[in-house]
Amino acid sequence: MLFKAKPQKKGFFSRLKEGLSMTRDNIVGKLDRLVFGKKKIDAELLEELEELLITSDLGVKTVQKLIASVEDKVSRKLLNDASELKNTLKEDIYQILAGDEKPLEITKKPYLVMVIGINGVGKTTTIGKLASQLKAEGKSVLLAAGDTFRAAAIEQLEIWSKRADVGFIRQAQNSDPAAVIFDAIASAKSRGIDVIIADTAGRLHTKVNLMEELKKLFKIARRELGEDHIETLLVLDATTGQNAVSQVKIFHKEVGITGLVVTKLDGTAKGGVIVGIADEFKIPVRYIGIGEQIDDLRVFNAQDFVDALF
Ligand SMILES: Nc1nc2c(ncn2[C@@H]2O[C@H](COP(=O)(O)OP(=O)(O)OP(=O)(O)O)[C@@H](O)[C@H]2O)c(=O)[nH]1
Ligand SMILES: [Mg+2]
After folding, report:
1. Is the minimum distance from the CB of 217 to ligand 1 under 6 angstroms?
2. 3-class SS at 111?
3. Do 147 and 182 contact (CB within 8 A), yes or no?
4. Would you state the torsion angle of the CA atoms of residues 239, 101, 125, 22, taken in this order, to the nearest 10 degrees?
5. Choice from 154, 292, 297, 300 to test ligand 1 binding pocket (greatest atom count within 8 A of CB)
6. What is the whole-number distance in angstroms between the Cα of residue 76 and the centre of ligand 1?
7. Which of 42, 98, 295, 302 has the smallest C-beta neighbourhood within 10 Å, fewest atoms?
């Protein structure tokens, strides 16, 4: 009799580690090469370190902070040898990320998760993954097709709703997205649904009329449910690097972001951007995306992240 071993599902941590491999190579690989064979932490080494971190998308302000911390430790003789740099940085980066670790808590019913962001960052995919996770936790979920611009967008969300085995609500293409949200809320209330997750059309954060439309969605949602029933998740594509920073700024100013999702960490060397964002904005990173499959969304955990990175 022939036995065929089922492909082992890789452990949680090893999948994360694999996903972050390009970023790890970019930051830690370069760091290893930088300190290799060196002993003294001198001005020249610090300058090279600064450049290395900046080219790793950590963001200028954050890098200056990290360098200042290294200098401080060197001057206080807490840090003496170049070989200790890696651990010091790991600890400092952990401290930054830990401040942003605050998992999404669904405390009200129905709860509305509004998923926003620019085109192609991974909103719809993230919704599918999140729906599947919440369903596995025993919650009833309804997906709302608030991206009414493209018929394909509505269909894409419907496919995810089937994959995740959750409810789905839509209207015709080009209908008012505010009406879809209104409908979804009414339906969730009458059916006793726990969580609505609303898709929205990708929009350039610099396009004024699209931002106005988004604000209208929030106005309806807040009126129907109240602020404390709403999580506003901004989805960011890690491959865009520092561009993500300006997206956070503008979306936050316009509609108020309560959580972030950083996707596509698996396909990029620019994952360091998450450190800069955590440092600059006090907005929790709720989830990270490390692949296209339904189970490739992780609750953000600072310790796991730095362990996988270093
Ligand atoms: N490698 C990788 N790909 C991802 C991840 N998340 C999403 N994608 C891919 O990114 C592409 C865009 O994803 P969508 O979910 O359609 O993005 P969107 O923000 O809804 O796009 P629009 O509706 O056009 O604004 C798809 O090919 C996804 O499979 C991720 O974490 N890793
Ligand atoms: Mg979409």
Report:
1. no
2. strand
3. no
4. 30
5. 292
6. 47
7. 42
Give residue-wise pLDDT tens across range 41-98. Answer: 999 999 999 999 999 999 999 999 999 999 999 999 999 999 999 999 999 999 999 9
Give the tens place of pLDDT for each residue, 260-306: 999 999 989 999 999 999 999 999 999 999 999 999 999 999 999 99
For residue 295, give the 3-state DSSP assignment.
Answer: coil
Which ligand has the shortest distance to the CA of 238?
1
Give the chain's domains with CATH numbers: 13-310 (3.40.50.300)
* Rounded-to-integer distance, Cα 176 and Cα 73, Å: 57
Say how many Å lie between the CA of residue 38 and the centre of ligand 1: 42
Q: What pLDDT score was predicted for residue 209?
A: 79
289 CB within 6 A, ligand 1: yes
Ligand 1 binding pocket includes 153 (Cβ within 6 Å): yes
309 close to 238: Cβ distance less than 8 angstroms: no
CA of 228 to the centre of ligand 1 (A): 28
Q: Contact at 8 Å (CB) between 15 and 305?
A: no
The H or E element spanning position 298 is strand 297-299
9-25 burial, b for 16+ CB within 10 Å, e for fewer?
eeeeeebbbebbebbbe
**Among protein residues, the one whose CA lies closest to atom 26 of ligand 1:** 122
Q: Write down how long the chain is.
A: 310
**Mean pLDDT, range 226-230, rounded to an integer:** 96
